[in-house]
Specification:
Blueprint (H helix, E strand, L loop, with lengths): L1 H18 L10 H28 L5 H22 L6 H30 L1
Helix pairs in contact: 1-2, 1-4, 2-3, 3-4
């Protein structure tokens, strides 16, 4: 299970490096993706641990239900990130961008984790 989660996290970071530039800046620049991935990678370590805990202690193993739990955790993490980087002038933009990126990353992570589980069966 841990191996699937780590592989899913790496795939998510690689794909995220190409998705982040779509939402940051006026023009597409892969440097934004590399920069964003450098800051997202430590958060993925937390995501792997939280994902393992969600799946271990969840009574309902339905993939949609598990996805919703992952998404809720990502939104809470995004809110905490926005509060830590609090600036009254940019708070709305920061929380919007952090929530959007968190939702995208969690969706990619859960999809690849699910696909890897299915391939192992």
């Amino acid at each position: 299970m841990l191996q699937n989660k780590i592989i899913s996290a790496v795939i998510t970071l690689i794909i995220g490096a190409f998705i982040i530039p779509l939402f940051i800046g006026a023009t597409y620049s892969i440097s934004y993706g590399i920069y964003g991935t450098a800051f997202t990678a430590p958060a993925m370590l937390v995501a792997v641990v939280v994902s393992i805990l969600i799946e271990k202690y969840s009574k309902n193993k339905n993939v949609i239900f598990l996805y919703m739990k992952h998404l809720l955790c990502a939104l809470i993490f995004s809110l905490l990130f926005s509060l830590i980087n609090f600036n009254i002038n940019t708070f709305k933009d920061t929380i919007y961008l952090a929530s959007l990126m968190g939702s995208i990353y969690v969706t990619i992570f859960v999809i690849f984790d699910y696909l890897l589980k299915r391939l192992k069966k």
